[in-house]
Structure formats: C-alpha cells, structure tokens
Design brief:
With 197 residues, the protein is of the alpha/beta class. The chain has a single domain, classed as Cobalamin-binding domain (Rossmann fold, 3-Layer(aba) Sandwich), CATH 3.40.50.280. It is built from eight helices and nine strands. The strands form two sheets. It has a seven-stranded mixed sheet with strand order 2-1-5-6-7-8-9, sandwiched between helices. The chain has a two-stranded antiparallel sheet with strand order 3-4. 40% of the residues are buried. The structure holds cobalamin.
Length: 197
C-alpha cells in the first residue's frame, strides 16, 4: 500500500483572521485520514495553518516559507500520494503548496479536493500542470482507491489528464452512514486549536 500525506493549505494573508481561522482543525482531511487508516493505509496530516501563525507568539510565516517547509517535509517523509484540500479562499495557496510538492518529488501523485475544485476541476487542471488529479465530491473512496494503486480510469469521482484531454470520471455512490468514521482528531495536536489558553 502507498503512503499518503494530507495537507491543509495556508490562508491568503488576512491578519484579522489569525485568531479565528487557526482554531479549526481540517475536518474534511481528518475524515479522509480516519477512513484511510481504518483501511490499513499509512497516512499523515499536515496543517500548514499552524505554521502560518505559530502560537502563542503568533509569529507569522509567508507562503514562500511554508512552501520551503513543505519541500523539506516531502523529501523527508517521501509520501507517494499527496492530497490537498481547498475552498475558494484557500485555492491559490493550495495550488502553491501543490507546486512545492511536485518540485520536491515529481513522482508523487498530487491530488486536490474540496468544495472549490469540485466545481472547477477543468480550470484547476489547466492552470496547474503540477496537479495530477482533482477529486470531486466525497473523497474517501477515491483516495483509498488511489492508495490501492487502481488505474485512474477506474476511480469514480476524479478528473485527470490523458493524452492532452481532461477526463471526468462519473461520481460514485455516497458512503452509507455506517461507513463514515469518526474523524482522526488524534492525528493532530488538538491543543493547537484551543481558542483561548
Ligand atoms: C463547518 C464550516 C466551516 C467551519 C470549519 C470548521 C472545521 N473544523 O472544519 C468554519 C467556521 C471554520 C468555516 C470557515 C469558513 N468557511 Co465554511 N463551511 C463549513 C460547512 C458548513 C461545512 C464544512 C465541513 O466540515 N464539511 C464536512 C467535510 C467532511 O467535508 P469537506 O471539507 O467538504 O471534505 C470532503 C470533500 O469535500 C472531500 N475533500 C475535501 N478536501 C479534500 C482533499 C482531498 C485530497 C480529497 C481526496 C478529498 C477532499 O472529501 C471530504 C470527505 O468526504 C461548509 C458548507 C458545507 N455544507 O460543506 C461551509 C463552507 C465550506 N464554508 C465556506 C466559506 C465561504 C467559509 C469562509 C471563507 C468564511 C469566511 N468568510 O471566512 C471560511 C474559510 C474556511 C476555509 N478553511 O477555507 C463556503 C465555501 C465556498 C467556496 N466557494 O469555497 C461553504 C461551502 C459554505 C457556503 N455554501 O458558502 N467554515
């Protein structure tokens, strides 16, 4: 089975958000991590928002500094698949992190998911040649099938390039409630998300 790293990207610099937005663990990624771990995969989660505004000092780091950190991290951990999440607001930083990943290891499969790219898969793949796959909608099954090494053509819910064209595989059925795990909160240090301490 392949190794997976899931990354929550930094935010565009909006200083008024520092205290607020760094309080929230990347919930979507923690669901994916729990699902993958339950299925026996080796998975890590990196929340770069915690690097962006270090606590309690609130020392701030630029996106370029975080890109550099990500390159070192990839060289050290050597994940085979790197999955990045994004909303519209975090899309640009997410693409910059994806670029840093590909620069550090061109062999790593770089996937992006989340609400923004679900609706903007073609734009994302056209703008970002360093992103291999867009996962549309619920990500648990598609990322697990990637980890199993299934060919892209057989994974439901992904968009990818093939011979210069973008292919959109149809989205598969949703997970049943029993298949949805408790998010893997233990994989990040929850003390970092306490609002006042
Ligand atoms: C809870 C919530 C918040 C909480 C988050 C708390 C937390 N700990 O996560 C808080 C209050 C912090 C918040 C903040 C904001 N939010 Co909000 N939020 C939501 C809400 C209601 C639910 C999100 C959620 O937890 N979903 C459940 C998880 C499991 O789903 P998910 O993250 O989408 O992940 C799944 C898939 O998308 C996919 N996936 C996601 N990432 C990846 C990555 C890979 C590699 C793969 C394979 C799959 C994958 O797989 C996951 C599991 O199936 C949504 C609306 C909605 N119903 O989705 C709005 C929503 C996401 N928020 C929105 C907005 C605008 C914001 C803010 C910008 C508000 C602001 N003005 O600052 C900020 C930005 C936050 C950010 N990180 O970008 C918009 C985003 C719109 C857009 N175009 O991107 C939404 C869609 C609401 C709306 N309809 O307008 N939010």
């Amino acid at each position: 089975m392949l190794n997976v790293l899931l990354i929550d990207p930094p935010f565009p610099e909006r200083p008024w958000d520092i205290k607020w937005l760094t309080q929230f663990p990347p919930k979507g990624l923690m669901y994916l991590a729990a699902y993958l771990r339950n299925a026996g995969a080796n998975v890590n989660v990196l929340d770069t928002k915690q690097l962006q505004y270090e606590k309690p000092s609130l020392l701030s780091r630029s996106i370029e500094e975080i890109q550099q950190f990500v390159r070192y991290y990839i060289n050290d951990k050597k994940p085979n698949i790197v999955g990045i999440t994004s909303t519209t607001i975090s899309y640009i930083p997410a693409t910059k992190i994806a670029k840093a990943v590909k620069e550090a290891d061109p062999k790593a499969i770089v996937a992006i998911g989340g609400v923004h790219v679900t609706f903007m898969a073609h734009e994302t793949l056209k703008e970002c040649p360093w992103i291999d796959i867009v996962v549309r909608g619920e990500g648990e099954r598609p990322i697990f099938e990637l980890v199993q090494g299934k060919p892209f053509s057989q994974i439901q819910g992904i968009s990818y390039r093939q011979n210069g064209e973008i292919i959109d595989n149809p989205i598969g059925p949703l997970l049943s409630p029993e298949e949805i795990p408790i998010p893997a909160y233990d994989m990040l240090d929850m003390k970092n998300y306490v609002l006042f301490h």
